[in-house]
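Late entry, evening session. Most of the bench is empty. Finally got around to the prediction I had been postponing all week. Sequence below, unchanged from the version circulated by S.P.
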Amino acid sequence: MDHDRLNHMNSIHRPKACKCKQCSYCAVTESHMLGHARMHALDRFECVSCEVKLATKDALQKHTLLHITKEEWECDDCHKKYASRLALKVHQCGQHGLGYQCPKCQKVFDASIKKARHL
């Protein structure tokens, strides 16, 4: 494995060290976990449909759309339907490998900016 790829794999894909006690999130470092834990302290807005808690009213409003929006976005490959274009893109990247692939580790992203941040 070349030096650049090894550095990339160690910094981005090394095993996660810290697991959140409130959800399934895993962090690479303790400082990342502390930042994540602060998010839980802000979980004040609860969805009446599924009881998920969110940090902001805006996040709750966006989440609520998942419960009331018709599934109008269909995957051309497997015909599953999604409530938003973003949900469809995430599905296509994860299930069908469509998107922007990291040349070093082959991870696939649904947006070129996410790939750029990853690198």
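Two things to note before I forget:
The chain has a mean pLDDT of 77.
The longest strand covers residues 18-19.
Will write this up properly tomorrow.
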